[in-house]
Amino acid sequence: MKKRIISFLLLLALPCAFAFKQDVNVPVQLDWETHFKGKADQNSPFFALTAMTWQYSYSSTVYRNRVTIKLKNEVRVDKNRSWVKWDKISDPQIRASLLHHEQGHVDIQYILLLEAERVLKNRNYSVSNYKAQISELANQISSYFDTMQRNYDEETEHGSNHKMQARWDEIIQDKIAESKAASAELQP
Question: Which of 56, 117, 126, 168 to pair with 109, CA 20 to 30 A apart?
Fold first, then answer.
């Protein structure tokens, strides 16, 4: 009987202390010992959970009827809320496969970081309504990537469908390259 590897990712919440801040240049590279310090939920059907957060804030300047924002945009892996059921992944191959799948979730969150940076900074906002516009855009970005995370888990069967995992690996790498290229085009 084929062992089914099950995992789930993505808890968007306020960042906690002891979180790992995402570098804008590369995705965080997960490892079991560093990033999975939380107590496993024994009632969960999943073998691991990677808790991550996205947080943005901005300051704004209005000059000559134009709004300019300075964006602070962060993605974090929260090691104290991320957990693994060690007894379920004693086989080294299963362990590596599951970590690879969890890394895909982190990479998707990295794409969110890149896209939020590009989209939120490069808009013309209404002076009278820019706060609501920024909030709406951020909600759309968050919703889009929440859906992408769920699709990733469903289509890869939480990492146990290796053919679909390989396909998603390609999709994720393509999206990272696209996001980086789109951001580079906007640089002066």
Answer: 126
